[in-house]
Amino acid sequence: MDKKQTINFGAGPAKLPQSVLLQAQKELIDYNGIGISVLEMSHRSSDFSKIINNTENLLRELLDIPDNYKVMFLQGGGSGQFSAVPLNLIGLKEDRCADYIVTGTWSAKAAKEAEKYGKVNIIHPKLDAYTKIPDSSVWSLNPSASYVYYCCNETVHGVEFNFVPDAKGAILVSDMSSNFLSRPVDVSKFGLIFAGAQKNVGCAGVTVVIVREDLLGKALKECPVVLDYQVQAGNNSLYNTPPCFSIYIMGLVLEWIKNNGGTEAMERLNKQKSGIIYDIINSSNGFYSCPVDPECRSRMNVPFRVGKKEGDEALEKKFLDGASKLGMISLKGHRSVGGIRASLYNAVTVEDAEVLAAYMKEFLKEHH
Ligand code: PLP
């Protein structure tokens, strides 16, 4: 195989659509003929108002967000929301407790952070390895919990919910950082959804928070003002300087998603791309193996080992070196799990997945 171009399979910050980069490049120095860059623009200017309103409107349209939900564009990343969620919502009920469905690193971190502000109930027995979603029959939801929290796609382990958990009437909160806008979502089932932009919808620096209006105004008194949803929503995310350029880039990505068929089209393509890679893993007679239960294998992040079930590290290094020579980068698994991880976010094309698949087949033939 010859190297044709660089293909970024990174888990985030991740690949952006080429057309978005080209437009940002074109507009970098002189945005829309006004003589300055978005990087230099006041967040209180009418030009920036148009940018942030456009980004919000596109998001509302793409996800069909009901009118009784506020949309915010905040700083602090997904990790900032691990604190903001309990600071704003754990006091919704007197007991100050919350249920956390822990299925991987990111939900575990969120649960640990929430413990600073109230009682956290991990709603199923501790998992030895993050390779499955325990059956909901073993979930012990606490009826006095202020909310039920889960991470929709565990980026490190490649564990994805393909259903919306039944919170039994409690407020449902989801971290959708690594599968946001990769498929349609019924926002009305959630009290709150948040997502860092740097995987599926833009670049690092901005985190989207979608929250039902009646949940605002219940923050603990120790909640920092910049994390207080009522303050941020009441100021249209302009209580303090927002990540202006990241919001602008998100607007371009949302436009691109809209022009490419919206969330339904993203879902179809994401299934196709991940299917191409999982098919090779499944038909490799154990040369490639994915530890994740087939029921919850992620369409976004495909982790796999090479050579044997627990991974042949020398062979995996060879696999990564060979991929890199062909222009396929950032395929190394997260340092906590090792192996390989192919991230196939919205901007990764079917052709990109096919290039990886062809390489996997060739590598298998040479080494099996
Ligand atoms: N949640 C998920 C699912 C993630 O994948 C990540 C980062 O990769 C985070 C949260 C943390 O995001 P940040 O690095 O923006 O704080």
From TrEMBL:
<keyword id="KW-0718">Serine biosynthesis</keyword>
<dbReference type="GO" id="GO:0006564">
    <property type="term" value="P:L-serine biosynthetic process"/>
</dbReference>
<keyword id="KW-0808">Transferase</keyword>
<dbReference type="InterPro" id="IPR015422">
    <property type="entry name" value="PyrdxlP-dep_Trfase_small"/>
</dbReference>
<dbReference type="InterPro" id="IPR022278">
    <property type="entry name" value="Pser_aminoTfrase"/>
</dbReference>
<dbReference type="InterPro" id="IPR000192">
    <property type="entry name" value="Aminotrans_V_dom"/>
</dbReference>
<keyword id="KW-0028">Amino-acid biosynthesis</keyword>
<comment type="similarity">
    <text>Belongs to the class-V pyridoxal-phosphate-dependent aminotransferase family. SerC subfamily.</text>
</comment>
<dbReference type="GO" id="GO:0005737">
    <property type="term" value="C:cytoplasm"/>
</dbReference>
<keyword id="KW-0032">Aminotransferase</keyword>
<dbReference type="GO" id="GO:0004648">
    <property type="term" value="F:O-phospho-L-serine:2-oxoglutarate aminotransferase activity"/>
</dbReference>
<dbReference type="GO" id="GO:0030170">
    <property type="term" value="F:pyridoxal phosphate binding"/>
</dbReference>
<protein>
    <recommendedName>
        <fullName>Phosphoserine aminotransferase</fullName>
        <ecNumber>2.6.1.52</ecNumber>
    </recommendedName>
</protein>
<dbReference type="InterPro" id="IPR015421">
    <property type="entry name" value="PyrdxlP-dep_Trfase_major"/>
</dbReference>
<dbReference type="Pfam" id="PF00266">
    <property type="entry name" value="Aminotran_5"/>
</dbReference>
<comment type="pathway">
    <text>Amino-acid biosynthesis; L-serine biosynthesis; L-serine from 3-phospho-D-glycerate: step 2/3.</text>
</comment>
<keyword id="KW-0663">Pyridoxal phosphate</keyword>
<dbReference type="InterPro" id="IPR020578">
    <property type="entry name" value="Aminotrans_V_PyrdxlP_BS"/>
</dbReference>
<dbReference type="InterPro" id="IPR015424">
    <property type="entry name" value="PyrdxlP-dep_Trfase"/>
</dbReference>
<feature type="domain" description="Aminotransferase class V">
    <location>
        <begin position="8"/>
        <end position="356"/>
    </location>
</feature>
